[in-house]
Fold:
Amino acid sequence: MKKYILGMFLLTIFTLTAAAAQTDEAPIIGPLTITPTQPAPKATVTFSVTISGQSVPDEVHLWFKECNNQICHPPKNVTMTKNGATYTTQLTFSYSDATYVNAHVAAKIGTIWLLGHELNATLSAHQNNNTDNHTGKKTPGFETIPVFAAVAIALIIITRRKRS
Structure:
């Protein structure tokens, strides 16, 4: 009976010790920001996030994908560098057809990964501060095909009437 009570006492001590060791405050992952706020496709941008709390992450990664209205290109995983409580990374987008970017941060503490808030950033339609000489005109030539077809049909009808 004494061994049983001693075993229960030791089990209780170990349980309380393990619970006390795990009371570290989980880090607080702040909102993810992008600079500039509405970059152009293929632009160079900076992502940053502030992580606070008693636990310091072992690793912080940015996971992002460039998307358009039809598809999302394969996601990319980039390691962020620490500067105080702020983690940043600078990168250049890869796809010229992208219209928005979807991103989030993952922080690793021990063997556990914590996910931050998701960021959806709309990409601007014009590069180089709207000086890309795009006038908004459609591709020339395609509207002339129906005109040529109508003229050819009219000529065929007129020449057949004159022959008869």
